[in-house]
Amino acid sequence: MVTMTNIFNLLLHEGINTFKKIGSAASLPQLINDQKETQRHKKGAISVTRSKEDLSTPGGVRGYVITSKETLLEDSVELSHWTPNVHNYLGYSDTQKRHLKGHTEKNLQQINTFVVDIDSKKQPYTEILTAALDHSVGIPTLVLETPKGFQVYFVLETPLFISNQNDYRGLKVAKRISENIRRSLAKVLQGVDLSCNDFGFFRMPNEENVRWFSDKMVFSMHNLIAWSKRQDDDQNRGLFVVESKGEALDPTHAEWFRELLATRHVKGSDGQIGRDNLMYTLALACYSAGKGQGETLDLLDEYNSSLAAPVRHSEVQKIVKSAYKGRFKGASQLYIRELLENWLPGKDVPVTNHVGGWYKFKKERKDRVRSHYDEWEGDLLAYIQSEASTVQPIIWTTQSAVCEAVGMSRSTFNEVIRKSKKLLIKRIGKGRSAQTGLTSVAVLLQCALEYNQQHRALYTDAVSLMTGSRENASALWELENQLALLTKFPENPALTGKKFNSS
């Protein structure tokens, strides 16, 4: 069951205190632990108002300051708006402490979420979910219904902390991402407010206005920056890039990239890694660096024209389109080395600081074992997303073909399938005639959100087929939980009342 505690904890992270400093209902051990947490993480404050009219009073915004989640939970039912992004400090502009001051962008301590304001109910919230999945950064974390429309929250996996370094460069990056998210949705949805304050006041979530919430749908800042840079491609404008400590360098600046781009004698031949592989590797490097698809196409089109034996322009287009499907995070180190050995023999070119790869990706967690599992699962999910559709939500192939396409061993594949709550599998037949059906919770969710009745039937058939496998128990429960808030979505007989034994 979704509770306001879950929502506030996810949105605010550790930005404010958990308990009140005075008059808390928490036990002494809880207060002591909260005090220790305060010493480890800087705490800020948020602003709240009791009505929409309080946002535009003659004296400024009328409201008050909240510094703990305990107070927020107690007062939330009586509040109309809040600032989900935490400020360093907040105060009052009058002696009666009625009007707020300090809620400016440059006083932000951390950005927790991007919010899109939609002033229209001409499309239901399920259509907003589908539009965000198909045309923007992905399914949002939270959707609230407002009197005139909806507000859509895209919550960061970890907060972006704001500082005044380099003229608030982090804030500028965040504002560009926020703008691009709004623009991407405005292309397909009615009523998107393009002039909305990026990090101002938004509707307060409560049990009455929440239409969708998923704590699994959170976004990494690194991926949002890469996505936003690709959105800027058609507008010929750059993005202020914030490099985090330890983050890999841009692979298009690496020596191996420059050396391969300078080759002119590359051609294709049977049994030898050739020009198609080389251009695909360069395209993957551009993709992982966040370059736009158009920019990459121009680069490879120019490279192809300089070859002694060029391919057709349509082939270059296919290569770039394939690289930008998102199936792989970056260029394979193995392929880079093989290309260098084949076409630049005897030349010692280091292959370092490449972002991602087909086999091993940049580790973002201290827990290496868990990180490897997440990465393999991510590879399979990306493969399914690129190959499946709402018309054909299940990919029918062989286990060998899947392992070869993703670059993992069968034992790893089986282990990932066994543990995953996001992947579903169906095995039919034995030996050479065996077929493996693969899909994911995300693909089925997208299928479920389609209004076309044919797609609804395909979704029902797909879930019914996957229900018979014990391996799919946890993933099916996850799908059911994701759909629980879709109040208008009809119950699926394949899920309703079923009990699964995942042991």
Poorly predicted sequence stretches spanning 5 or more consecutive residues: 239-248, 353-371, 487-503
**Please, what is the average pLDDT?**
80
Strand order of the largest sheet: 4-7-9-8-11
Compute the CA-based radius of gyration: 25 Å
The gross shape turns out to be: globular
User: If helices are DSSP runs of H or I spanning 4 or more residues, what is the number of helices?
Assistant: 17
- How much of the sequence lies in strands comes to 5-15%
Number of domains: 3
Main beta sheet:
5 strands, antiparallel
* Cα separation of the termini: 23 Å
Tell me the total number of β-strands: 14
The share of residues in helices is 25-40%
What structural class is derived from the secondary structure elements?
A: alpha+beta
Summarize the structure.
40% of the residues lie in helices and 13% in strands.
